[in-house]
Amino acid sequence: MSKYLIYICLFPIKTPNLVGGMERRMLRTINEISRSSNKIKVITNAPNIEFLKKICNSEIYFQYTLIESLNKYNLLYNLCKVLIKYKRNYIHIMNTTLSSFIILNISKLLHYKIIISVVDYPTVQKRIGYFKIILTYYCLFFAYKVDWLYSYYNVFWKNNLILKKSSFTKSSFTDYEKFNSNFQEKNKLILFSGRFVSLKQPLFFLESINNIKAFIRENNYKVILIGDGELKFKIIQYIKIHSLEDIVEIENTNEPSMYFKKSKIFVSLQKYENYPSQSLLEAIASCNYVIATNVGDTERLLNKSNSTLIDNSINSLSTSIMNAILNYENMKEQLVELKSNVMKLHNLENSADYFNQLYFS
To answer: Would you tell me the crossing angle of helices 21-33 and 49-56 to the nearest 10 degrees?
Structure first.
């Protein structure tokens, strides 16, 4: 019997144009699988087909149905109608939210086999409340298969019934073709890219920059923070209070490739997990020397021979930035090798192979 699958891709109702790394990676992966197979149908509240083409950066090869989402109730109602209409064998839903719980139970009634991907590290690391833990256990128990983004899922979720049907995503990827490693285009630039929220630690980064501002000026380096978010006002105030305007700039762009091409040093300071940061992959693809907090699955991308992995201390970060400034020219060969190794493992083809096996084996 042939196997057919429905993949549900839901964007925020109020901000449907806000596309995260997970949605981008999954839609491109499914589009790649669908080049040689017509067994996947995507149900999504994307505004139009052009929106999907932009995300996939190509023509659309998968079947799709666009559903209206005036509010969450309207969205769930329209989703249910489609699930009843297009009866398939399997359904793939993302994460263990309340919406996922509702979709899962509807799918059970319709006799779907349910595949769940857990892609948020707070859930994997159980940094969630009791209600969310109970909700997650329920969803995972009734899932046919469980896909985890992070390799350490079995440290936190030890139930044998869950572990028997679990696997973890072997690779991530980004648009490597947008990023080059032309060292002649590099400027003396240190880059931070990410949402300005506490988990990304932009203020921790600025405190370290302030700690070595004289050294940065002496070596003619500049610092750029790319992003936006709730901490933006505090960041602006910190720059003013500590007179960093001459060396620190703030930018906000959806196309950071121009900055990665020019920068030499990239800093990734997430508090609990750097993997599979798109910014980190883009920095590696552009042959930036990376300084990152050594948390979670970060070492799936980096190691001590080709980057600097630090703890959450200002002195550690400050010292690492100074060493990177002094030694960047001697690290070019290692950076090219790191880029090559990462691209061999973390690419669209490997992602498509993994999910093709997950869906249809």
So the answer is: 90
